[in-house]
């Protein structure tokens, strides 16, 4: 496990402490969870970009057209 020192504006640090307190968590646990959420979002974005880069644009547009048609019905 690593130790990380970060610098935050006083107001941000105070708000994060209040958030952790309201959840009954330590600051460490809160930052760990927020970091995991940020990494999951980043991983998802990278996955979709990789899939899009290898995808068939015409097939994707055809799927969107079918979805639009279904929404109109």
From TrEMBL:
<dbReference type="Pfam" id="PF01402">
    <property type="entry name" value="RHH_1"/>
</dbReference>
<dbReference type="InterPro" id="IPR010985">
    <property type="entry name" value="Ribbon_hlx_hlx"/>
</dbReference>
<dbReference type="GO" id="GO:0003677">
    <property type="term" value="F:DNA binding"/>
</dbReference>
<keyword id="KW-0238">DNA-binding</keyword>
<feature type="domain" description="Ribbon-helix-helix protein CopG">
    <location>
        <begin position="4"/>
        <end position="34"/>
    </location>
</feature>
<dbReference type="InterPro" id="IPR013321">
    <property type="entry name" value="Arc_rbn_hlx_hlx"/>
</dbReference>
<dbReference type="InterPro" id="IPR002145">
    <property type="entry name" value="CopG"/>
</dbReference>
<dbReference type="GO" id="GO:0006355">
    <property type="term" value="P:regulation of DNA-templated transcription"/>
</dbReference>
<protein>
    <submittedName>
        <fullName>CopG domain protein DNA-binding domain protein</fullName>
    </submittedName>
</protein>
